[in-house]
Amino acid sequence: MQLDRSCLLDLLSQSFPSQLNRRGKALMSTPLKSPSTSTGIRVDAVRIARFRSLRDIEVQLGDRTLLVGMNNAGKTSFLRALHLALGSDRRLVSAEDFSLATDGTEAQDILIDVRIVPVGSEGNRAKTFDQKWVDNDLGNDVIQSDSAEHEFVAIRTQIRRDAVKNDIAIERFVLRIWPEFSEWKKTSAGRRIGRFEQLASFFIDAQRDVVGDLRARSSYMGRLLSKVEIPDAAVAELEERIRLLNDDIVTKSQVLSHVRDVLAGLNRTVPAFGDGVEISPVSKNMRELVKGVGVHFSDGSGSSFPLESHGMGTRSWASLLSFDAYVSWTARLADRERLPFHPVLFLEEPEAHLHPNAQRSVYGQLGQGIGQRIVSTHSPYIAGQADLPSIVHFSKIGGGTVIRRLPTNQLSDEDTRKIRREILRSRGELLFARAVVLFEGETEEQALPLFAQHHWNRHPFEVGVAFVGVGGDGNYAPFLRTLEAIGIPWFIFSDGEPKARDTVTAALQKVGAATTHPHVITLPNDRAIEGYLLDEGYQNEIKEAVIGISGPYHSTQHEQAKRKEVANWDDTQLLQSLLEKKTRMATHWAEAILRDEGERCIPRAIRDLLQKVDAVLNANPKQDKE
C-alpha cells in the first residue's frame, strides 16, 4: 500500500502549505527514499520571559536536549513555551500562563526569542544557510550576521492580552541582533512575520496511547492512515481476493452459513437483483478496509496480540514510534519535493509505564531520526544514558525557575568519566533531589535514612532528600562538582578520623569550596561513627543491637546467657563487635536508638545534620505552580 498524491500533498501541507500552493506542481514520480538525517539548521538558543515560572531564562539547545529536575520546576512550561514560539496554536495559551509578579499582579505579555543557525553535516555550526532554506521563507530578508560573519535568524514571539477582544494575541517579529542575555528584553523587534513553515513543531505529553492514535484522525498515525489508497489497477484484483476469502470463511463457519441462509429470506419479501444477501467478515471495500487497521505485537511467546491487549508501557512507546513513522515519511516527501524540513519534538516523560531496562534503551532510540528532540524526564535511567552537555537542570527558587548545566568545557576527561560512572550511571536520582547528603560508607547508608525518616515522619525521598554513599574515600569530588554546577544543596556527613577529614578537605579544595564549609558535619574526637556512639552514651542500645544480631536463639536460656555475657562487655569489646559486623549492625543499633525517648532518639551529630537540611528546605519550599 502507498499514500496517494492527495495524501502526500496533505502531509506536506501540514508543515509547509504555502510553498506547495505557490509552486502548485505535482509530486515527482521517483520513488521515496530515506532523506539525510541532517536538516541543515538547528534551533540553538531560546530565551523566555514572563511565562509561568520562566520569568527570565536562557537555554542552549542541541539536537538532543534532556530536561531534568524535580516536579513543578518548569520543565513542562519550557516545552510548552517553545512549542508556542515554533507553532501557531493560540488555544494552548491561557491567562494562567502569564507570570505573577511579587505583588500578585499578572504580566501583560510573554516574550519568547529563538535563534536558528545553520549546521553542517557533522552537526557543527556552519557559516551560511544552505540555499534550499534561503529559497523557502528563511530568506535573505530575515537572515542576519553576527560579528564573526556567521549567519543566524532570530525570531521574537510576543504573547499579549488583547483587552479589546478579551482574547490573547500571538505575534512574531524579526530580530536584527542577538544581544547579550542581560539586554535581550530591551531589544527592539523588527517587522512582523508569520510562522516558519519548514520548522514543524510537535508536542507529545505523557498521556499518549497508540490505541487512541489508531482511532483518532488527528493523531500522527491517523494522519498517515486517513488517506491510504491502493492503485486503481490493483483494487479490482484485491477486492476479488477479499470476496473469495469471505466466501471461504462463511462456508467453513456453521454459524455464518446459518445466518446467511436465514437472511436469504429477504429475497422473498424484498426485490433483489444480483446475489442477494452476502456475509462479509472482512470488509469488501478497500477504502473501508484501511479504516480498520490494527496493530498486533508478539512478545516472543509465539502468540500475537493486538496492542489493546498489551500494557501501557508497550502502547506508550508504540505511540512514539508512530510519531517517528509520521515524521520520517513526511521527511521523505519533503526530500522528494526538494523542500527543507526540520521537525522539533517536545516530549514529556518517554519513560512513562516502562520498566527500568526499557527506560535505559529509550534515550538511544530517541537519538535516531532527523530534527531536534527536547525531552523532559524524571528517570535516572534515561539521564544515565545522556551525554553530559545535553543535560539541562531545572530548579525553582522563590517561585522562579533557574536553569543550570554542567560546565563540561571546564571538566577534565577524568572528571567527565567519574561523573558519568559514579553519578549518572548508578546514582542518577540525585539530579531530581532538593538536597543531597553525601557520606563515605555503607554504615551511614543504612542508618542515616532511618533517623531521617523518624525526624520528618516521612521517607526522605518524599521530602526530596537523597542520601548517597560516594563509595569510599577520594570519591567526593565528582559529586560535589556536579551538585555545585546544577545548584542542588549538598551536605557531607564524615567520620572524624584524620584520613576521612583529609579526604573531605581535599575534595572541597578541588571544587573551590571553603574547607570549613557549614554543610560539612564531622564527628568529634577523631572518631568513626561507632566510637562516636559510645562517646555519646549509647552502650545499652548497642548491646541490644548485639543481642539482636546474634540470634536466632535455640531457647530462652540461650538468649539469657547471651544477654548476661554482653551486659558485662566494656567499650572496647562493644567497639570490636561493632567493627567486626559493621554493615550488618547499622540498622540494628539505629532501630535500638530510635526506641529511646526525647532527643536521645537521634544522636546529636545526626540531629545537627538534619536541622541544617531543614534550614535549606525551608528557605526554598516546594512550589506547586510551574
Tell me the number of helical segments per DSSP (H or I, 4 or more residues long): 24
CATH architecture of the largest domain: 3-Layer(aba) Sandwich
Number of domain modules: 3
Level-1 CATH class name of the largest domain: Alpha Beta
Rg (C-alpha, Å):
32 Å
Give the full name of the CATH homologous superfamily of the largest domain. P-loop containing nucleotide triphosphate hydrolases
The biggest beta sheet reads:
7 strands, antiparallel
Describe the structure.
This protein is α/β, with parallel strands linked by helices and 626 residues long. It is built from 24 helices and 21 strands. The chain has 3 domains: 32-198 and 339-394, P-loop containing nucleotide triphosphate hydrolases (Rossmann fold, 3-Layer(aba) Sandwich); 243-311, no CATH class; 427-619, no CATH class. 40% of the residues lie in helices and 18% in strands. The strands form 5 sheets. Strands 2, 3, 5, 6, 7, 8 and 9 form a 7-stranded antiparallel β-sheet that branches. A 6-stranded mixed β-sheet has the order 10-14-15-4-16-17, sandwiched between helices. A 4-stranded parallel β-sheet has the order 19-18-20-21, sandwiched between helices. Helix 20 packs across helix 23. The longest helix has 25 residues, at 312-336. The radius of gyration is 32 Å and the shape is globular.
